[in-house]
Amino acid sequence: MNLKTTIVSVAGCVLAASALAQDATATAAAKEEKKPTWESSVGFGLTLTKGNSDTLMATANFLTAKKWDKNELSFGADGTYGENDGEKNAETARGFGQYNRLLNERLYGFGRVEGLYDALAFIDYRVTVSAGLGYYFIKNEKTTLSGEVGPGWVAEKVAGETEEYFTIRFAERFEHKLSKTARIWQMAEYMPQIDDWGNYQIIAEVGIETSVSKSLNLRAYLQDTYRSEPAPGADENDLKLVAGIQYKF
Question: Taking CA 98 as the corner, what is the angle to CA 44 and CA 160, rounded to the nearest 5 degrees?
Fold first, then answer.
């Protein structure tokens, strides 16, 4: 082997090693990019009027979710406080946590915990624990539609009286991306008492959200809560319209 051949061979080995190193770096970077992370957001809304009537309505919410392998985990909380001419007309706090385990591409099992406080409905607390099966009827990059059903247990203190009972939870959720910067969503949840179907609760929500920057969104949603057997002195229906900003991180 002459000097020229040796130089060419060495150069070839160096180039091959360099290519392998670049491939390894690219693979590592790709794996790092695909590493699942939490997607979180916090939102605020405020309505204030002064003059013939003095009103105040403030809302706040927090959402976070993570998906990896066959797992989906989400948590959320929201609160509302309002006054009308110095008299409180809203004071609520709500939170939830849910874990989904995908059994195949569309079918999943879930476990969910919810908590509620509502001063004007005389609900000191309501805790609901439920589990069951869910199914994605539509599941693609633009649109999802899922339904859930399963038994649950409720512990609550309403108007000073505590009660525990079993329920069954029926729920559905729809979401559609109108564009890269806008989406709409809708959800509904129906929970009757198993041994008294006349005692039930329905929660429904519909909303729209659009991006004004990479991290900042504008959103508006309408939320309705109906209780068939409210506490004495409380209304059956609570309707809330909220507009505000949402910061994603």
Answer: 75
* Half-sphere CA count of 98, side-chain side, radius 13 A: 25
Do residues 108 and 97 lie in contact, with contact meaning Cβ atoms separated by under 8 Å? no
Nearest by Cα to 238 from 87, 62, 45, 89: 89
Q: How many other CB atoms are there within 10 angstroms of residue 141's CB atom?
A: 6
Backbone angles phi, psi at 21, to 5 degrees: -65, -40
pTM of the predicted model as reported, rounded to 2 decimal places: 0.80
Q: What's the pLDDT at 129?
A: 98
Q: What is the structure's pLDDT at 5?
A: 52
Same domain, 130 and 102: yes
In order of 82, 152, 185, the CA distances from 79 in angstroms are 10, 24, 20
Per-residue pLDDT tens digits for 167-190: 999 999 999 999 999 999 999 999
Same domain, 221 and 189: yes
Number of domains forming the structure of the chain: 2
pLDDT confidence of residue 49: 80
Q: What pLDDT is attached to residue 217?
A: 95
Domain at 121, CATH number: 2.40.160.40
Pair 48, 131 in one domain? yes
Residue ranges in 144-231 assigned as alpha helix (H): none
* Cα dihedral 147/219/244/119 (nearest 10): -20
Cα dihedral across residues 159, 160, 161, 163: positive or negative: positive
Parts of the chain with a pLDDT under 50: 3, 6-8, 10-11, 13-17, 30-31
